[in-house]
Each structure stands twice: as C-alpha cells, then as structure tokens.
Write a structure and sequence with these properties.
heterotrimer; A mainly alpha; B alpha/beta; C alpha/beta; A: mainly alpha; Cytochrome-c3 Hydrogenase, chain B; 3-stranded antiparallel sheet; 17 helices; about 50% helix; B: alpha/beta; Beta Polymerase, domain 2; 4-stranded mixed sheet; two-stranded parallel ribbon; 5 helices
Chain lengths: ~400, ~200, ~160
C-alpha cells in the first residue's frame, strides 16, 4: 500500500537564523483532534504556523456517491460529530430543494427540526466550552458543561434512538414524532438551563486568568475574517452579523424571535462571549419551538415516492407495500440539477453543493466545511504570538476534524 | 403534485446543471477557463468579499471533464449589523476544465482559496497555476491517484491486493500477536493453570 | 486473599500486584473522531471513569498503559497510531472503540484503514457507532479482569 512510514517533515517551513521548527500534534491534547502544526519559532514566539490536516480524511464525499439519497445521510452525519443533526438537516434541505418539495414539509416537522438544531448548537458549544476551559487549565468547567450536555443527549436519545448520531432528520421530514415524555424532559431542561448558564459565566467570564489568556489574543479584523472565509461565531466576534438563519432563513427561522450576538473586538475573548450569548439565544428559540409543539400534526411529507408509508398500512394496503418495498430496495430518484444549500451550523455556514443526475444516488456531494476555513485563519493570526497562545487560538476557532478532513 | 420519479438520464452528455432551470439559490454563471481570472477579479472589485467555497465535480464522459465551482458571497468588509447585511447576493461560477488543463489560482484575491485549491488538486488532480504551495492536503504525500475522480475505485486500487498496510510490518512488534508472543490459546491455558492452583491452595 | 484472626491480611504478592496494576490503567489521550467525544463523556460526572482508576489520561505515550483507539483511522493517521503504540511501554493494552476502529464500519473506502487490528494488536473491541460511555466502561472492566486473571502484561507473569 502506498503509505509513508517516515514522519512528516516537508520543507514547508524555512529554517534560517535562530528559528527552530517544532511539530505539534497530531496527537496533542490541545489540538482538539488530529491536527498537526508545523511551527517555526524564534524562542517562544511563533514566526510561522502551518497547519497540516488530513489525519482524519474519511472519504465521506466519495462514500456518499455510492449510497441511496437517504443512506448517504448516515455518513454525512458523521462529518461534524459535535452537531451531527446539522449536517443531516443541511443535506436534507438541499435534496428537498432538488425534489421541489421544500414548501410541503409539515410545519410540525420544521418546528422539531428547529428545536433539534438549537439543542445541538447548545450541546456543541458546551463541548467547545468544556475543552476550551481544560486547555486553559480550568478543569471544573468541563464537568459543568458535560453534565448539561448529558441532558441534551438524553433528549436526543429519546427522540432519535442514539446519543450522538440519531439520523433523526430525514429527507421529507423526520423519522417519527417525538415520543411520550420527551416534552416533559424538555421542560425540565428549559428550567435547568438559565441557572447552569449563570454558573458557567461565573466560572470563566470574569475570571482574571481567563481574561489574561484570551483578551487581545488571535485578533481577526473584519477584512481578514472575510479573506480567510471565516463564518459563524468567529465572524460575528469580528463585528459582521452574518447569520444564515437571518440572511437565508430555512425551516421557518424567520418566524422565531432571536438576536444575533456580535462583538467588535475580534479576539479570543470576544469569540468566547459570542458563543455564550449564542447559547442563550438558542435556548430562546428552543422555548418558542416548545410552545408550538403542543399542537399535534404529521412529521413526514405525505408523498409515498419520498416517504415510506406508515408501518400499520403496509399489512393492509398493497400499494403501501409496493411503495415501501421500492423505497427500501432502490430508494427514490431525484430530478437532475444542482443546488447549493447552506445552514448556520454551530461552527458557521455549513453548505452542501449537491449534484443529481436523476439517479437514486447523489452524483456529487460537496461540503462547504466551516471548520476547515475557520481553522485556515490560524495561519493568519498565529504569527507574532506566543506558543502558549496557540492553544487559545485553536480552541477559540472551534474546529472539528471530522469536518475539516471529511 | 408532479411525480419525482423521473427516468434516469443516460448517455454521455451528463451535465445536470444545464438540464434544469436553476432553483434560485444563487446567481449562476458559466465561464471559460480563459475568462475566469478576469471575471473573478471584476467580481472581487464588485464587492464579493468572500470566496465561500471552491469545489469540483467530475463528469467522467463529458467534454470538458470537470466543473470547478466557485461560490461567492457579497458581504460588507466592515462591522455590520443584521439589517446592514440583509440578504447578501450569492453567486455560483461554474468553470469547465479538462483533464490536464490548468486553472489560474485565485489565492491572491481571496486568501481562503489556499486550502480549497489544494484540496481540489489533491482529490481531483486539477492544477492551479500561480498557487504558492500546491501539494496534497488530505491524502498522504506519496499517495497515488486522485480519489474523488469517478474512475477511482471506491476502495482504492491497492486494497484488494493487501488488506494490511505495508507499514504494519515494519516495526519490531508483530501485529496481531501480543508483545509477549503468547497467543489466545496459550493465554487460556495459563488462566486454567492459575485457577487450578488457586483451588488447591487453602 | 484471606483475613487471619489476628487481623492480618494474607495474599500472594502476585495477586496484590495485579490488583494494584488493574486499578490504575492509565489511558493515552488520543481522540480521533466521534468516539473521542464519548471517551470524554466517560470522564464526566455522569459516568466517572475515576471509579475504575482510569481517569488519569496521559498525553505522553511513555506514561500510558492503555490506548483507546476512539474513531476511524485514516490512511494518513495509521502510521501515527502505530508509532504511538510502539512508543508505549510494556505492559500495554488496546481498546478498539467503535465500529470504524474495529472494522472500518460504514466507511468501506479508500481513506480508512479497515480495522486497526491490521496494524496493532487489540485486546477488547467495543461495538457501536459510537459506543455509549457504558460500553467503554465495560471494556475497561474487561481489561482489568484480564489483568487480574493473569492475562498478558502482569508484573510477575508466570511462565
């Protein structure tokens, strides 16, 4: 097999004068996964940082080309593993656009999707906050964060059947309605959240050590942020209030009331504050979605060509049986065409460029990975900082390597 | 509603984007490789501050074979509120390019094109002229072939020949057996012996 | 072990050593993919791997006893995993966490190594995509059991 056994030492970083080349990662506790940084350093100062990615390249885009439209969602969900449902939703919305069924998705399905998205956003930011805390030596934050995250994962497990990759959002709606008891669980979470949020803020926000480590570290100006293609909380911390939920609403986000938190400093502390504010705004959306969930209704599109008929009809109706068999054995076909669909994932604008040639499998699924572009900005902000600050910068950009490498 | 069961398109000239009226997700433009650079420069000057994404599609039997797709977004390059951002213009530029044909790099216009172009080069083998540092990004440096091409086998060309990567054999540890060299059978035997001894001791 | 009437506890040195060894299996901090997040959950208050004495995640392979391969191993990462394993001091154990690490899982493609047992020896496989934290705790339990029952890697291994 064509595989290199030698460690990676390409002549990327020039070596002259007092400079020294240091390799950080790919197994390093603060790189949030499998990132390698080739650093050119002059004493403690970083002269040049060259991130080396690809250590988690999974070939998801290639694998998706060999699966049915619905099956492809399973692998796509494993890209951004901190917010699995947002990958699935973005892909599903894209396929729905190609099918031309966007406005036929039941309202309840859209509401539950929004609920799910915002809960994933909170869960994802909690993992970010916990690990960011650990990177800076504040271990206890991690325990607070993961405790709250467990509550959200319990809800996901109850609705989708799995803690992390529920594959709950489907093309055409959802895989089943919310089971009994979930709403009560959700109410309990809504009640618990504000208190826990106060604790989280209390632990870090005014902490002088935390402020010392993050303020004026890794500053991204608005122009640089755009040039490096940074989106999401990192862009909003630089002052540009671009949020796909507001700019290109999907799933009825235009009917929810929420603010887009922004800061103008553009440093690691600003990104921290924006994400904390965003968690509170996400909870605001969850509360509004919760109020709309008292009305029952369908959660899957009523189109046997896309959605499997209800299980109980299969034994009674020949037609339902045939539809079910066709869908399970060869999937549905999607009209030829291409579409770009974007959503606001916890990390920024997650986009899918999907090409169909009319077959029952996607011809090409190209992801616009927010993490990859956000991480690339490290090349711009790292030089001139101390090595110790690198950890802060990587953490504040919040990369997820499943998505960077795909 | 109209049926979604449209018969599959057969034949060589597969070009889905041209077969169907656009869905209205972006302003779409198709450009020749020669005119690409000038057009992108003009768009950049026109306020498309963000090169959102750069990807490629392989239409194996079509001429030209690949489509390189540029997604642009028009955002103000200064602090802006939600209402100032509004609904920014999205633009999608498709550029047909043949196998072996190079495209001009846009890394100097948008710094973010750096990794995106490297990825297209790595996975499709499309060369970007003028890129400062065009090398593989996702696959190991000595990898052969470009995996996302349609004629690249899903499992890789080498897999059938050897399920075990070559580097696995290059260390002092033999994979599959524990470092002590004891196999499972020997282990079970040992456990049995220890247990028998334990029974005997009071 | 037996407690004598005088309040003394009698045990074979071997058993005591194994007991101590099995209660302090320190894992290597090596997160790969989705499973790494569940590996982190294991250390949280809800699951608390400290009950098993394995909460001390070591960043250096020289100080670690247990490698938890948490997630898919890409072709580029394979040599790194292999090297980390070689750097760990004997006795060492490996848990293959999740479907991807055990067999390639749903990613039967060019990019993923189809099971890490093709490159390093594995002691315990944990099924799931990703496995629940309970699953991982059980795997650590199995490793402990293996040590106590005189499996490989004991300090005073008998021939």
């Amino acid at each position: 097999m064509t595989m290199s056994t030698t460690p990676l030492t390409p002549e990327i970083v020039s070596q002259d004068g007092n400079a020294m080349v240091l390799s950080m990662g790919p197994q390093h506790p603060s790189t949030h996964g499998v990132l390698q940084l080739l650093l050119e350093i002059d004493s403690e100062n970083v002269v040049k940082a060259e991130p080396e990615i690809g250590y988690l390249h999974t070939g998801i885009e290639k694998t998706a080309e060999g699966l049915f439209w619905t099956q492809a969602q399973t692998v796509i969900e494993r890209m951004d593993y901190l917010a699995p449902s947002s990958n699935a939703l973005c892909y599903a919305l894209g396929v729905e656009k190609l099918l031309g069924i966007t406005d036929q998705i039941p309202e309840r399905a859209q509401t539950i999707r929004v609920l799910h998205m915002e809960m994933t956003r909170i869960a994802s930011h909690l993992v970010w906050l916990g690990t960011h805390g650990i990177d800076l030596g504040a271990i206890s934050v991690f325990f607070y964060c993961f405790d709250l995250r467990e509550n959200i994962l319990d809800l996901q497990e109850a609705t989708g059947g799995a803690r992390m990759h529920p594959n709950y959002v489907r093309v055409g709606g959802l895989n089943g309605d919310l089971p009994d008891g979930v709403l009560a669980q959700l109410d309990a979470l809504i009640e618990k959240f504000p208190g826990r949020m106060r604790e989280l803020r209390g632990l870090l926000q005014a902490n002088p050590i935390f402020q010392d480590r993050t303020i004026d570290v890794g500053v991204l100006s608005p122009e640089d942020a755009l040039g490096w293609n940074v989106t999401g909380p990192s862009l909003r911390a630089s002052g540009i209030a671009y949020d796909v939920r507001k700019a290109f609403p999907y799933c009825g986000y235009e009917t929810y009331e929420f603010d887009v938190p922004t800061r103008t400093e553009g440093d690691a502390y600003a990104r921290f504050l924006v994400r904390l504010d965003e968690m509170e705004q996400a909870m605001r959306i969850v509360e509004q979605a919760r109020r709309r969930l008292d009305r029952p209704g369908p959660v899957m599109i009523d189109d046997p060509k896309v959605a499997a008929p209800p299980k109980e009809t299969i034994a009674l109706s020949m037609e339902a049986l045939i539809h079910h068999f066709k869908l399970m054995s060869e999937g549905f076909r999607v009209p030829p065409g291409d579409v770009y669909q974007a959503i606001e994932s916890p990390r920024g604008e997650l986009g899918f460029y999907i090409v169909s040639n009319g077959e029952n499998r996607p011809y090409r699924v190209r992801t616009r990975p927010p993490s990859m572009y956000n991480l690339q900005a490290l090349k711009g902000i790292a030089p001139g900082n101390l090595i110790a600050d690198l950890v802060v910068m990587i953490g504040s950009l919040d990369p997820v390597f499943g998505e960077v490498d795909r | 509603m109209p049926s979604t069961q449209i018969p599959p398109i057969t034949g060589a000239a597969i070009d889905p984007p041209s077969l169907r009226p656009p869905i209205g997700d972006a302003v779409i433009e198709r450009i020749d490789p020669q005119a690409l650079r000038a057009r992108l420069e003009a768009l950049k000057a026109d306020g498309f501050t963000m090169l959102l994404d750069l990807g490629a599609v392989d239409y194996l039997t079509r001429k030209p074979r690949f489509d390189v797709v540029y997604h642009l977004l028009k955002l103000p390059a200064r602090a802006a509120s939600v209402s100032e951002v509004g609904t920014p213009v999205r633009m999608r530029i498709l550029c047909g390019v043949d196998d072996g044909q190079a495209l001009p790099s846009v890394m100097d216009l948008w710094t973010s094109a750096d990794w995106a172009e490297r990825e297209v080069y790595d996975l499709f083998g499309i060369v970007f002229e003028g890129h400062a540092d065009l090398r593989r990004i996702q696959m190991p440096y000595d990898w052969e072939g470009h995996p996302l091409r349609k004629d690249y086998p899903m499992r890789g060309p080498e897999r059938e020949r050897s399920p075990r990567p070559a580097f696995a054999n290059k260390s002092n540890v033999v994979a599959g057996t524990p470092p002590s060299g004891r196999t499972l059978a020997a282990l079970q035997e040992q456990v049995k012996r220890v247990r028998a001894q334990d029974d005997k001791t009071p | 072990m037996a407690v004598s009437p005088g309040g003394f506890m009698l045990a074979r040195l071997d058993d005591v050593a194994r007991w101590a060894q099995s209660s302090s299996v320190w894992p290597l901090t090596m997160g790969l993919a989705c499973c790494a997040i569940e590996m982190m959950s294991v250390t949280s208050a809800e699951y608390d791997i400290a009950r098993l004495g394995s909460e001390v995640f070591r960043s250096s392979p020289r100080q670690a006893d247990l490698m938890i391969v948490s997630g898919r191993v890409a072709q580029k990462m394979g040599p790194v995993v292999k090297r980390l394993y070689d750097q760990m001091a004997d006795p060492k154990w490996v848990i293959s966490m999740g479907a991807c690490a055990s067999s390639g899982g749903i990613f039967d493609n060019y990019a993923i190594i189809q099971g890490i047992d093709t490159i390093i020896p594995v002691d315990v496989y944990v099924p799931g995509c990703p496995p629940t934290p309970d699953g991982l705790l059980y795997a650590v339990n199995l490793i402990q059991q293996q040590i106590r029952e005189g499996g490989r890697g004991g300090i005073l291994a008998r021939s």
